[in-house]
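Side project, low priority. Logging it here so it doesn't get lost.
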Amino acid sequence: MGDSEIVLPAPVRLNGAEQLFVSGLAPACAVLFTHGFEVAKVRMQSQSRLNGQKTYKNTFDCIVKIARHEGTRGLYKGLSPAILREASKNSFRLGLFEPILSLIHAGDIHSAGMYKRFVAGALCGVAGAVSCNPFEIVKTRLQLQVDGKGGKVGGVAVSAQHGYTSISSALRSIWRDGGFRALYAGSVMSSLRSMLGSGANLMVYSAVKDGLVARGFREAVWMDIFSSLVSAFGAVALMNPVDVARTKYYGQKFKNGRGVQFRSGVEAFVATVRREGLPALYKGSFAHFLRLGPHYCFTFGFLGLFRRSLSDYKEERQLATSFHSIDRDENGVLDQAELTHVLRVALADELEAIRPFLSGQQVDERLRRSMDTLLRSARAEGASASDGNSAGDSGVVSFQEFHAVAGELQQQVRAWRIEVLFKYLDKDRNGRISVDELAAILPECVPRDAGLTDEAYEALVQENARALVKYADANKQGDIEFEEFVSVCDRMKDVQGDKVVLAWLAASREAVG
């Protein structure tokens, strides 16, 4: 079998379509468990004092009265549009977060600052809000109805009753009242709400989860649930005032695409503050948290579970393909000759690049140490999965042990790439990278602005080189040792050539700024 036919194990990532799918599916499942609190929140936010009295005293009173007068089904009004709303909104809100964050942060996204996380989350929130606005309007109005036909059978109406019997009837009615404009009424306000809530949610969630992973915890459902619950506090604090105004705006009667009571979300916001005071902006905030906290827990719990399950499935298929491509004699195990061959194939570029710096004997010794590392990982995997006996003890690797070997092989390739790059940057081969050595390589990595003079460009190169050294120089000796360079690379996902220097430069600028 030729080298071109060998399938090397590689990190498994979900593609764009898969990310969007699981990002929509997870919250659609979560809403099944939390919709009752959403109905209570909407009713609480829509009520105003009538003759000095409130219809609902608190969240639990609201839930009890809905259940008493409208039955259990009353707590699930608007469920169908809520599912469609969650799926359409979060496919973008959650599915685009990492791609957008990677666009505004040059290094590994897990090292991104809080403000970048907020900006990425806010942009995703706007995209999600626009996509789901028609379903949001239908959901809100169905939840405000005291029965399925807009009557008052034992219930108390706290807002206009629209008489919708289904999602399709609601959409047709809204379209007749104002067409496209009516379907997207309040979309600016929804975008503002989602921008604030999504920014806070995804900023806190990702930061807390990355912090736990950095401390050695393994990704699991409990981590998704804990991180999302913490993020719910910030999301409610920012969203609830906009939520109150939006609920009042959506819940009113519309004529020719315009609200009868409030002409805009801003008018609803101002009118609420004037009539009921600032505390009115946090009406229903407890119900909001009771809904949002569990909803985030279910959403991100399901999302993490779906992502890991799909990734594990894809990884298992990829490893099977890779194993069979390496097993040239098709005997079901990989011997040392097959492992050595795949190691050389995986390191082909690195072996070529490192030859000017190491003798043939040194390269062979390094390969031998890498092979020993692969076999040790196989033995450890085999021992942990059995009674202590391992195929790796006899110098061959089973498919079960290949899981560990594949991961270690990727780490070995990464380690070789880092060493090659260090030696390339260390022009005088003294084991340290200086400011001058970085200044010599920067013009190859960073494009020059056409408007800069030679003197200005030289000054900029020197400034960037000093910033790179300052960022990496942990021992403050004025240059970069190999261990310090490895520490810089550990913060990056991609350690290939120019990408390292560009990500390193972006991180150094962020640290200064």
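Brief comment: The first strand starts at residue 254 and ends at 255.
Revisit when time allows.
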